[in-house]
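Please check this chain.
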Amino acid sequence: MANNLHAPTVSSGPTSGGIPRDLSKLSMGDLMKHKENIEEELSALSSVLTSHGVDMSTSLTTFDGFPRDDIDVAQIRTIRAQIIRLRYDHKEVMGSIEKGIHTHFAGLQRASDEAPVATTANISTSQPSGTSTPASGVSASTPFAKVNSVVSGSPADQAGLQTGDKIRSFGSVNWLNHERLSKVAEVVQRNEGRTIIVKITRNEAASSNTIDRDLELVPRRDWGGRGLLGCHLLPL
């Protein structure tokens, strides 16, 4: 009977291959791929913990100090150790990505300072599809979430968010650092009652064009509904 108590096991070793010894030698594309591999493995390992009915902090012993016999304690300990290591690897990779982005945009800024000053009088915050933008290679404007629903009269509705809008940035959060939208939740909690700039891309109903817009969103509790925003986001 004991053999039927445990969920299917996973391989004992990680599939991401571990963090490379010298991240500075990796291209931005390789860093992003490594980041995605780590996140996929973290998700898979977390799912195994969930299948056992435990998480990273659940006690693995009985009230009198003996190992629980209703779960695979050895496997759970192994998975937890892998998750801890992968979280550290993820932090290291994200640090290298952020350093690369800062270096890249510092170069763009230097180039901009050396170039002739262009007038901005006629620049609009909305750009039709196909409008050229400065090539960045590691642009942080790639959409990372989609608005799945918006409640009428909510802060999201008042800001102008619409169902189907794709989020390019949410305050300081973008496709490079949103961590499966967890960082969006943190920004919302930290900025209750304060304005957050949300950059979105929207498909125009009357044409096949898309437009980019900057919206001002103020999270608040007193709007008459649940949550601080009144909308639901899905990761892309």
User: Anything to note?
Assistant: The beta strands are 145-150, 166-170, 196-203, 210-217, 231-235. The chain is about 35% helix and 15% strand. The domain at 145-235 is CATH 2.30.42.10 (Pdz3 Domain).
